Amino acid sequence: MSLHISPETAAKFMRFGQNNAIHAGGQFYHPEEIVIGLEKNVKLGRRVFISDTDHVYQDIGKPILTQDLTETTGRVWIGEGTIIEHGVVISGNISIGPGSLIRANSLVEQDIPANSIAEGIPARIVGSCTDK
């Protein structure tokens, strides 16, 4: 099975800059907007999942997919020169600052400042890309 999305429809939700690399297996779920390096040079590793929203889990008697979304007015913004390694999940209304590195298999649920190195579940800042 394949899905075709017209360029016009895709353009309303996802915006990409120049010289960005997206490796195999990535998934993007975006009721609102995902912005990936409008400037340039963003690298996404294999199996990266990006979503600007999530489901609520309040009623254990209902399937998760039938419950409401936590937010439908957000966006994910990934700044210029950022590297997102393989297996990373970015969920929610998130901004990742330019020049940052998100280490493999991390879960990003909060904003990451520019030039930061973040890792873990949940992702936390462990260093700076400007450190020598």
Task: Give a description of the structure.
- It is a single chain.
- The chain is mainly beta.
- It has a domain of 36 residues.
- It is built from 1 helix and 14 strands.
- It has a 6-stranded mixed β-sheet with strand order 2-5-8-11-13-14, with no helix packed on it. The protein has a 4-stranded parallel β-sheet with strand order 1-4-7-10.
- The longest helix has 7 residues.
- The radius of gyration is 15 Å and the shape is globular.
- The N and C termini lie far apart (49 Å).
- The N terminus is likely disordered.
- This is Acyltransferase.
- Pfam families: Hexapep.
Describe this structure in a few short sentences.
With 132 residues, this protein is mainly β. The protein is built from one helix and 14 strands.
How many strands in all?
A: 14
Gross morphology: globular
Q: How much helicity do the residues have?
A: under 10%
Major sheet characteristics: 6 strands, mixed
Provide the structure class: mainly beta
Q: Beta-strand percentage?
A: 35-45%
Cα radius of gyration in angstroms:
15 Å
How is this fold's topology laid out?
Blueprint: H1 7-13, E1 14-18, E2 21-22, E3 27-29, E4 33-40, E5 43-44, E6 49-51, E7 75-78, E8 83-84, E9 89-91, E10 94-96, E11 101-102, E12 107-108, E13 116-119, E14 124-128
Task: Fill in the keyword field for this structure.
single chain; 132 residues; mainly beta; globular; 4-stranded parallel β-sheet; 6-stranded mixed β-sheet
